[in-house]
Amino acid sequence: MRTFIQILFVVLTGFVTACSRDEAPKAPKTSVTAPPVTIFPAKTIITMNPDLPTAHAIAIRGDKIIGVGETAGLIKTYPDAKIDKAFADKTITPGLIDPHIHMILGAMMYTKPMAPPWDIETPAGTVKGLGNRADFLAALRKINAAHPGDRPLIIYGYHNLVHGPLDRHVLDAITTKRPLIIWHYSGHDFYLNSRALNMAGVDASWAKKFKGVPLDRDGQPTGRVYEDAVFDFLKKTGPEFLSPSSITKGFADQLDMFARSGVTSVAEMGYGLFGLKLEASFYKNLLPAKPTTKIYLVP
């Protein structure tokens, strides 16, 4: 398996076209069917254009920026434009670009209960970080209690450098009544209690085939499954991670989070990680016709 890839959000900027500071652009010739123009005055507009660092109004036709400058100049250029003062007391910035995301992996993670080492922004809001082992283990017990029954439970966010070592014995102390899977913050490692090991069919024989199934001093799996063993692990547990309902919700939640955060473009840098046919079906069926964020698929 090409490893699960750690989600890294790096924010860049881009969207605004150049124009002069005081002279409004000449109105282009348009057909009678052209969409109407709307001018948005603002307290400040940050353009990222060194020739015009800031402005106070922006003109939009349809979904295109056609002018940036001062309100009076744009009104002179587009006398029939509608004036929308929704942002009159606000600052408008360029749309943000995230050049490295994973939509399906994110959909999987964001729909799981979380016990992260530090604060994480999610579609549902901020999940507070757990900065020590005691708080982390207490959170696992609380999440387990909040999900009664014997269905498999997957919790995302564990970090060994903050929360200390984890093995099947520690997780069996949380519960032996259900399969419990702890997903490492990096996305690369999984930690299973005894019920989860049985569910996935992971036993000592896996150590002969995979580096990613270490054994303890008794010759039994420690509970950790990682790297080269993950694909076989997911063959048995995939429905718990890739259920249509969770992926559907995860897609919608991420698009909403992008829109609320001002992210207008993202690049999916692992398209096909779970199979091109499967992922193509997700994008075809789950993305709206006109998503608020453009998604570039990079195989």
Mean pLDDT: 89
CATH topology of the largest domain: Diaminopimelate Epimerase, Chain A, domain 1
Number of helices: 10
Write the H/E string, N to C.
EEEEHEEEHEEHEHHEEHHEHHEHE
Structural class: alpha/beta
First-to-last CA distance: 15 Å
Q: Do you know the CATH architecture of the largest domain?
A: Roll
* DSSP strand content: 25-35%
The gist of it:
Pfam families: Amidohydro_3. By secondary structure, the chain is α/β, with parallel strands linked by helices.
Structural topology:
Blueprint: E1 12-13, E2 37-49, E3 52-61, E4 64-69, H1 71-77, E5 82-83, E6 91-92, E7 96-101, H2 103-110, E8 120-122, E9 125-127, H3 133-146, E10 153-158, H4 160-163, H5 168-174, E11 180-184, E12 189-192, H6 194-200, H7 206-209, E13 224-226, H8 230-241, H9 244-261, E14 263-268, H10 276-286, E15 294-297
Parallel strand pairs: 2-5, 2-6, 7-14, 10-11, 14-15
Antiparallel strand pairs: 1-7, 2-3, 3-4, 8-9, 11-12, 12-13
Helix pairs in contact: 2-9
